[in-house]
Amino acid sequence: MNALARYWDATRIALAQDKARKRSWLGCDEVTFLPAALEVIERPVSPTGRITTWLLLFGLLLTLAWLTFGRLDVVASAPGKLIPAQNVKLIQPPEAGVVREILVRDGQHVKAGQPLVELDPTASKANSEQARKALESAELDAARARAVLSALNGKGFHFTAPVGTALDIAALQEQLAEAQLADIRASAAGHSAELNAATASRSEAQVEATKLTETLPLLDEQLDANEKLLSRGFVPKLKVIEMRRQRMAASRDRDAALERAKQAAAQMARARTAVMASREQARVQIMGDLAKAENEARMRHDDLAKALNAVAHQRLVSPVSGTVTQLAVHTIGGVVEATKPIMVIVPDGGPLVADVMVLNKDIGFVRPGQAVALKLDAFPFTQYGTVHGRIESISSDAVENDKLGLVYSARVHLDDRALSIDGRLTQLAPGMSGVADIRIGRRTIASYIVSPLSKVGKESGREK
User: Fold this and answer.
1) Which family does it belong to (predicted)?
2) What is the average pLDDT across 206-226?
3) Could you give the angle at which helices 167-232 and 122-152 cross, rounded to 10 degrees?
4) How far apart, in Å, are the Cα atoms of 377 and each of 80, 380, 382?
5) Of 78, 164, 333, 338, whose CB neighbour count within 10 A is largest?
6) 158 exposure class (CB count in 10 Å sphere: 0-12, 13-18, 19+)
7) Do 101 and 118 contact (CB within 8 A), yes or no?
8) Domains of the chain and CATH, by start
9) pLDDT of 84-116, one tens digit each?
């Protein structure tokens, strides 16, 4: 115990002396002029350096952790504009025409079916009247052909004019059909006359040949009897010679009559064939005329329908209730081109969608349902925020854009129809342009920083 007490007393006295020495030691300036070893003892090294080193090391570790575990959104930017979900309605004339009356003004609200512009119907009415006359002519041609064909088929001549044909025109067309039928029958009658003449000639030749055939046996008997009498000297030889001549003449006349009958039979066959061919040729021609007339009537019917449709569309009406925009006609008597829009109707109400153009390089990563942040040009997003939505649909093929090249059209369904601007809600309007940031994925900050270097590394060393 005494030893411990002595050690404790010695330690306490040493600490007290050291404290007293520090209080009474040289000032700061005096320490500066001490030897280096004493200066280090009297003024230890400041801990600031160690603290700074540890802080830098800790910051480096935090940075590495942030680069490794921190993640960024990967977005594809697609420019576009707001449009009604039902699409705007283009008003365009089906055919070129002259403006007769302008019934609306730009910005005016119209109802469905309300007249917008009236065109001069003079040319359209003339075209429809011409088409109607052409149709009537084709139908009359078909009616004539049916009547003649019915008579040729043995069903009687029945002419039925198209409904609405004037009586005098119907009577004239019936007379033309009768004249055509008479001409066909006259042609067939000529061949029938040839057939009758050949028939008569054959009958006459057959009668003559039959008579001579019956006469020849009698002549043979007379000749035989006279030859016997000549051998006995009862008749002169000249008489026998004369009888032989008569017998030969009768035989020749019979053969000639048979030949004439044969020739007449051949002529009859030719005449009969000609009669049948004439009738069949007439039927074929009339059937061809009928088919041609019916085909012409169908074509003219379509032309008339088009002409009447053009007349009906000389007054352009609004297909939906909405607001007139982009009115392109302002002059009475001005000419409008076929299918060229002369105004646009923006439908009332209904939701808005963003019609955006996805670049070709991004289309492989864009899918329906992906989140979208729409930044409107009218309202800076840094001050007023963005409009959120989702990809609704994507076109199946690319279209050419003058500035962006080949792009795909995509529809973005918007979650809101208004933005809070300076404390009050402002409704979004069709036509507002903006850029849609489509969230296509996430990646680490380190990969974002390293990707340019990786790209350069993969592409370097291969230049020509």
Assistant:
1) Belongs to the membrane fusion protein (MFP) (TC 8.A.1) family.
2) 69
3) 30
4) 10, 6, 11
5) 78
6) exposed
7) yes
8) 3-69 (no CATH), 72-85+350-460 (2.40.30.170), 89-113+319-336 (no CATH), 124-314 (1.10.287)
9) 877 778 888 888 888 888 889 988 889 988 998
